[in-house]
Amino acid sequence: MNYEPLYSDTAKRMRSSEIRELLELSQRPDVISFAGGLPNPDSFPIDDVRRILNKVLDEQGSRALQYGPTEGIKEFREVIAEFVSKDGIDASTENVLITSGSQQALDIISKIFLDKGDVIIVGLPTYLGGINSFLAYQASLEGVPVDENGMNVDMLVEKIEELRKKGKRIKMIYTIPTFQNPAGVEMSEERRKRLVEISEEYEIPVLEDDPYGKLRFEGEPLKPIKAFDDNGNTIYMATFSKILSPGIRLAYVVASKELIRKMVIAKQSMDLCTSTLTQLLGYHYIKEGYVDKQLPKIIDMYRKKRDLMLAAMEKYFPRECKWTKPRGGMFIWVECPEEVSTVEMFDEAVKNKVAYIQGRAFYVNGGGQNTMRLNFTNAQDEQIEEGIRRLGEVIRKRVK
C-alpha cells in the first residue's frame, strides 16, 4: 500500500533531524566524531544504578513495574522541588511534572500552546530539537542573535516590537541560558533579570531549557531565569540525561500549577505515565546523595576534555577562525571566515576521518553557513588533538 496520500498534514510537515542524519555518517569506527551531543559513557554511574535498581526491585518491585500517575510519582516530584530550590527556584510538588526526556516536554509545550502561524522567538543559533518541535506544530520561528552573554535582550525587545506592529501573535521566548546548545555561551545575570522584565511587560512566557546547568567547570553559578520570576511567567525544564544517563529518558518541568495541570492532560494521550522504575531510580539518585558524588567526577572529566580541545584548536586552527571558550556544558562553537562553507566542507572532513555538526542546522533565518558545533565530551582524550588536527587541515584548505 502507498501510505503517502493517507498521511496527516502534521506527518507531512515532519522532517528528519539534520543532526541525526549527519550522525549516521560520522559513526564509522575510523572517524573521530565531534558531532553528537553525547555524554561520555565513562560518566555513567553504572555501579550506582545497579545498586539503586536492586534496592528498588527488592523493596518496591511490584510498584516499580506498574503504571504510575501521569504527573509523576509524588515522592519524586517532592525531591525535584527540593532539588531546584537549591538553585533559588521556589516550587512545590504541584509545580512539577515528570516527563520521558526533555524532548517530550518540548512536544507537550508545543502541543498546548501553538496554533498555525504563532510565533516563537528563539536564539540565533538555537537547539535543533526545539526548532523541530515548534515547526511540527506550524509555528513561525523568529531569531534573535546570541553573543558571549547569551540572547541579546535589547534586540529581543526590537524583535517583539517589530512583530507586534505586524500583528503577529508571539506565544513564547525559548532560551537555553546556561552553556547553550549549540554555542556553549552563558546568559549574564543582568540579561536574565531583564528577560523576566520583558516577559512581564509584554506578557510573553519564557521557556527556559536547562540541560547543562550542573556541568559548570569554572565561575560562580548563576541562578536560573525561573529563580528571578515571581509571577509564574517562566517555564523551567531540565533533564537527567547529562547528570545520570540519557538512556533512562527522565526529565522534569517546573511551572505554575495551572500550566502543569494542562500539560498533564496533554501527556495522558502520549504515554499515560513516565516509567515508574526510572522515576524511582531518579528519586534515590538524588535523595541518597548519589548525584552529589557523581557530578564532580563528570565535571572533572569534561573540564579536561574541554581544555584539550581548546589547546588543540589554538595549535591547529587557522587564526582567521574564532571560537567560544565555554565555562561548562558540552559544546564549542566555531565561526570560520565567510568564504568557508561548513556545509560544503562536511564530506571532505568525513573523508579526512573527522566529523562535526554544520552550524546552519541551528539557525532559523538561513544563516550560519560558516559555523560549526564541536562536542568535546564524547571523544576519548587521545582522539581530541588528532581530530582537531585533521579538522584544522580541512579548514586551512578553504581559507583564502
Which descriptors apply to this entry?
single chain, 400 residues, alpha/beta, Aspartate Aminotransferase, domain 1, Aspartate Aminotransferase, domain 2, 2 domains, 8-stranded mixed sheet, 4-stranded antiparallel sheet, 43% helix, globular
Description:
The protein is an alpha/beta fold and 400 residues long. The protein folds into two domains: 4-45 and 293-398, Aspartate Aminotransferase, domain 1 (Alpha-Beta Complex); 47-290, Aspartate Aminotransferase, domain 2, CATH 3.40.640.10. The chain is 43% helix and 14% strand. It is built from 13 helices and 14 strands. It has helices spanning 9-13, 18-26, 46-64, 74-85, 102-113, 128-136, 153-165, 189-202, 257-268, 276-287, 290-316, 342-351, 381-398, and strands spanning 32-33, 96-99, 119-124, 140-147, 150-151, 170-175, 206-209, 234-239, 251-254, 322-323, 331-335, 354-355, 357-358, 371-375. The strands form three sheets. It has an eight-stranded mixed β-sheet with strand order 2-9-8-7-6-3-4-5, with helices on both faces. A four-stranded antiparallel β-sheet has the order 10-11-14-13. Strands 1-12 form a two-stranded parallel sheet. Strand 3, helix 6 (128-136) and strand 4 form a beta-alpha-beta unit. Helix 5 (102-113) packs parallel to helix 6 (128-136) and helix 5 (102-113) packs across helix 9 (257-268). The N and C termini lie far apart (53 Å). The mean pLDDT is 95.
